[in-house]
């Protein structure tokens, strides 16, 4: 039976995917790299440097920049992003998620955070939801980011549960792959075609309920 939940942060709990996009888009504009749908969804869930490489490679210009220049671009993106997230309040928890977290807690289900973001503890604090979670995976301490299973595997360890007793929630393709390869049950939130590898799909965060998940899993 299911005993725990591992949450992605950006796009699942927090309305911050738009800020990542906005901050990267500014860098892309400065570098004269056209912003596309593929970049918009491709940067979801992958770490900061991988996001930059995806953007540079979309125009085939990654080799034009030294490692130092890439670090500087990633830092500039993060400085802008940090400015944007400093405005977050509990109202920026995505629709339905306050209720979902409270329901899981009332049912004694354990929760952890499986985010690729180094800014996760700060964001949880701003949203005032830190107390729901047993722990937060430190993405700088895992070998490989999403789509590798490491982050979601670590989130199950934090819960002290075997992966098959854990449900993982994600809005990105990279994240669903991570959950599945960690041996957990994947819940995709967003476009069902894009997230077709998810075991269960909900179109939006407001559709996610414990009752629906139980029904899907015959639990
Ligand atoms: C998030 C976002 C990604 C971002 C990554 C790293 O992951 O979806 O777009 O690149 O974190 O964030 P930071 O630059 O803050 O370390 P997740 O896993 O929470 O969706
Ligand atoms: Mg996400």
UniProtKB/TrEMBL annotation:
Record-annotated site: Important for catalytic activity and assists the phosphoryl transfer reaction to Asp8 by balancing charge and orienting the reacting groups: 115, 146
Name of this chain's protein: Beta-phosphoglucomutase
Entry similarity comment: Belongs to the HAD-like hydrolase superfamily. CbbY/CbbZ/Gph/YieH family.
Residues that hold substrate according to the record: 8-10, 24, 43-48, 51, 77, 115-119, 146
The keyword Transferase belongs to this UniProt entry's keyword annotation: no
UniProt-listed InterPro entries: B-phosphoglucomutase_hydrolase, Beta-PGM, HAD-like_sf, HAD-SF_hydro_IA, HAD_sf, PGP-like_dom2
Superkingdom per UniProt: Bacteria
Cofactor annotation remark: Binds 2 magnesium ions per subunit.
């Amino acid at each position: 039976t299911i005993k725990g939940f591992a949450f992605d942060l950006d796009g699942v709990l927090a309305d911050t995917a738009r800020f990542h996009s906005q901050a990267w888009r500014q860098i892309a504009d400065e570098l004269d790299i056209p912003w596309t749908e593929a970049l918009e969804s491709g940067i979801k869930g992958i770490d900061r440097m991988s996001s930059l490489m995806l953007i540079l490679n979309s125009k085939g210009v990654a080799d034009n920049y030294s490692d130092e220049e890439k670090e500087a671009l990633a830092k500039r993106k993060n400085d802008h992003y940090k400015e944007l997230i400093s405005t977050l309040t509990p109202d920026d928890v995505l629709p339905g998620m306050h209720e979902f977290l409270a329901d899981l807690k009332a049912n004694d289900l354990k929760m952890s955070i499986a985010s690729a973001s180094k800014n996760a503890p700060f964001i949880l604090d701003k949203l005032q939801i830190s107390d729901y979670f047993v722990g937060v995976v430190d993405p700088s301490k895992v070998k490989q980011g999403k789509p590798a299973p490491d982050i979601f595997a670590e989130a199950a360890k934090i819960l002290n549960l075997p992966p098959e007793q854990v449900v993982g929630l994600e809005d990105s393709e990279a994240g669903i792959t991570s959950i599945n390869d960690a041996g957990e049950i994947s819940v995709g939130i967003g476009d069902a075609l894009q997230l077709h590898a998810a075991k269960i799909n909900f179109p939006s965060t407001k559709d996610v309920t414990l009752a629906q998940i139980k029904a899907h899993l015959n639990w």
